[in-house]
């Protein structure tokens, strides 16, 4: 990709990527930082990225940067808080003084899962392991991991939608 093609990419895609990230984060400054990081990564790989594939590359990069940002943000907030607030207000918050004890409801929902489903859900959603890593830990192939996660999420969804839990 040439320098002029790179500049065209900035002109053509920066606004669309910014809108995509901003909708997810609801913060303009963080979205701008993520867009900038995506274009920096493109610049670092400008020789190896084809101009025809650059839109896909940019959106994929921005998405992964956003996911990493959210995970890092949640981890920092969780370390700062002593249990009063579980998430940053910018990305949604949960106050421990609410009538619903969310943590106990989630723990109850998890306890109802079969052991293998509980393990894969915890590894994937709480620890952030990849399907391949979960497969290595649980001695399953990637397809089995995906099926167990899917089934566990369905079970959790049904349980957590129960109106009796909210009352």
Detail the topology: elements first, then pairings.
Elements: H1 3-25, H2 28-44, H3 54-80, H4 102-111, H5 115-126, H6 131-138, H7 142-160, H8 163-166
Characterization of the model:
- By secondary structure, this protein is mainly alpha-helical.
- The chain folds into two domains: 3-80, Orthogonal Bundle (Rna Polymerase Sigma Factor, Chain: A); 99-166, Winged helix-like DNA-binding domain superfamily/Winged helix DNA-binding domain (Arc Repressor Mutant, subunit A), CATH 1.10.10.
- It is built from eight helices and no strands.
- The chain has helices at residues 3-25, 28-44, 54-80, 102-111, 115-126, 131-138, 142-160, 163-166.
- The termini are far apart.
Descriptors for this entry?
Rna Polymerase Sigma Factor, Chain: A; 167 residues; Arc Repressor Mutant, subunit A; mainly alpha; 8 helices
Percent of residues in helices: over 70%
Helical run tally: 8
- N-to-C span: 59 Å
CATH topology of the largest domain: Rna Polymerase Sigma Factor, Chain: A
Give the SSE order as H and E letters: HHHHHHHH
Total DSSP E strands = 0
Number of domains: 2
